[in-house]
Structure formats: structure tokens, C-alpha cells
Amino acid sequence: MEKKVGVGLIGSQFISTIHAEALKRVADAEVLAVMSPTEGNARKFAEKFNIPNQFTNLDDMLAMDELDMIVIGAPNYLHCDITLKIAEAGKHVVVEKPLCMNLEEADRMIAACKKANVKLMYAEELCFTPKYVRLKGLLDEGALGRPVLFKQSEKHDGPHADHFWDVERSGGGVTMDMGCHGIQFFRWLHPGVPIKSVYAQMSTTVHQAKTKGDDNAIVILEFEDGVVAMMEESWTKLGGMDDRAEIHGTEGVAYADVLQGNSIQTYSNRGVGYAVEKAGNTVGWSFTMYEEIWNYGFPQEFEHFVDCVKNDRQPLVTGEDGKAVLEVIFAAYESAGTGRKVALPFKTDAEKPIRLWKN
Fold first, then answer.
1. Spatial separation of the C-alpha atoms in residues 124 and 115, rounded to whole Å
2. Half-sphere exposure of residue 254, counting CA atoms within 13 Å on the CB side?
């Protein structure tokens, strides 16, 4: 492909803002359109990011011949139907996590994109986060010896949008929302080794009035070669986003903190306009971020996806990866519901992960 990759965005809220900001830094990408079904949202978004075309109807946007790749920033329950439409239109797809609501939808999405000969790319930024890329490099070069234990945690005080709290539209709570990050992170650190079991403890400890989903979770994965991975997910941690990881090996250990190690320690009596994602109160001490989007790897992620479309390369993170992550998520909710360790492969026809926890 000689021209720049023409990109269309679906969505106009928080995650689509990150997509637009990231794509501005990708030389081979050109964001040509944005679509939002809410009247006025697409127009405001297009004005903010200088996007030439805006739509309230998806079919109208997909009719644009100039678009090569569509990025889905819509609620979870819409991912499957939107992906099928994009594939039918012959355009490549980037899907924000989680891939979709259930394993049957995942199979339909993968099959539709294969039939249309378009790429189905799964947006997992932790595989592009600079500190985590370096962390994996230490493991790959043998500096830490043979891996024994992986840990990853992501915690904040809750999602931006109402649909995350609604399990009918999201499919689950914090494990569905953020656990998908940790699962793919572990699979990326330890490629080619299947996960053989999942054990999870979930609870709704703070947000009972807002959701039936889990707002705290601990999930333990065991790989077939004995490596153990533990992730902690929380929607109850105040003071802004916390994202960190550890690798323990036979010859060493390494720790990575995505945000605080790159922040400016700030004290303010009046509060900071913006410190870091999910920082609700910035009076007093706060960790004020700079280059937050770069530190999370979003521009690097989209540079990779654009390159895959422009030069017909295999994506690092695919629809198949998204399905594998979803399988582990379902197994985690089954474990939390039964109190037992769950073996993989795990088959289920449950329409949402939450059904396996709250029968």
C-alpha cells in the first residue's frame, strides 16, 4: 500500500480519545472519519481532532472507500455485530479489549474476518508498553533465569462510562474489564506454553449500589510447565491508576511500575487540573504524569497495527489471542462461582462471564 492507511474511529468517549491521540503520532496513519450514534458527539469529536468526516450511522462511514482500518471503541456488547459489519465492508478491524461477550461471538468474528480476508487485531497495549517491553526483554535474554512467577496488577476507583457497571452490557466486572490485560500480558511473556488451570476469588466490596459485577478480583493461572501467574484487579483503589508487574526467575527478579516511575511528584493546595487517569482528587500529593499515552504504549500499538495493514504483516495480538483471553476470563468466573480450580481448555455456552459467578 503506497498511501497512508485511512482510519475510521467508532466511539467518541474516553478510549476513542486515546485512539485519536495515539494515531496522531503514527506517520503512516490518517484518521479520516469518526462515528458515534449520539447526536452531536461525532461532530464535537471531529472538531477537537480535526477529523474531516463524521457520522451517526455506521453503514454510512463504512461506505467510504478511503477507509482501510476501523477501530472499535464501543461498549463490549456491540463488538461482535460491529466487527461483522466491518468485515463485510472489506476493512481491517482493531477491537478494544475485551474482544467480545462470549466464545461463540469470538468464533463468529474470527471466521468473518478470515472469510473477508481482513485482519482482526486485538488492542492489548500492555504488549507495547515500553517498561513492560523492557521487562520481557530481560526475561528473553536470560537475565532472570528460568521464570517461576509472574505478577501483574491494575487498580483504580472504577470505570469512566455507565455501560461498564452494567453487567448486561459489559459481561462482567473488573475481571472482564481489566483482567483481560493481565491474561494476555502473561501469555505474551510466556508464549507457546498453554495455561492449564485458573483459580479466582472475586467480590463486590464497595460498589454494590452501582454494579452486580466484581469490583475486586485475584486470579491465579498455572501454565503447563509449572510457571504460576497472579493478577490483582480492582475498581476500589483511590488516588488514580496503578499498573505494575513483576517477574521472578531462578536467577533474578525484575519490577516495573508503568506510571509512578514516570511521574512528577507534585504537592498542591488547590489541586492539579489533570494528574493521571482516574485521579479523582489531586489536592495534596499526587503523581502528575507526562507522556501518559506513550508510557502505556498506545502510539506504539497503533503504529504496529497500521504497519500490519500497510505492509500486510501478521499482528502481534490477534482475534485468536482475544478469544484465548476470553476463555481464561470465563474460567475465572467459573472458579469464583464454584470455589474450585478450573482446568483449561474450558468450554462454555454461557452468554456472559458474569453468569458463571452469579448463576
1. 24
2. 20
| Helix, coil or strand: residue 42 | helix
Q: Which three cell numbers stand for residue 245?
A: 508487574
Of the CA atoms within 13 Å of residue 230, those in its CB half-sphere come to 8
Residues 276, 289 contacting (CB under 8 angstroms)? yes
**Secondary structure of residue 301 in the 3-state scheme:** helix
In this prediction, the residues of the chain whose per-residue pLDDT falls under 70 are 264-265
- Distance, in Å, from the CA atom of 312 to the CA atom of 304, rounded to the nearest integer, reads 11
CB 8 within 8 A of CB 93: no
Rounded to 5°, the CA angle 224-145-136 comes to 80
**Beta strands, E only, 56-171:** 69-72, 92-96, 120-123, 147-155
Nearest Cα to 97, choosing from 309, 325, 336, 314? 325
| Rounded distance between C-alpha atoms, residue 2 and residue 5, angstroms | 9
3-class SS letters over 226-289: CCEEEEEEECCCCCCCEEEEEEEECCEEEEEECCHHHEEEEEECCCCCCCCCCCCCCCEEEEEE
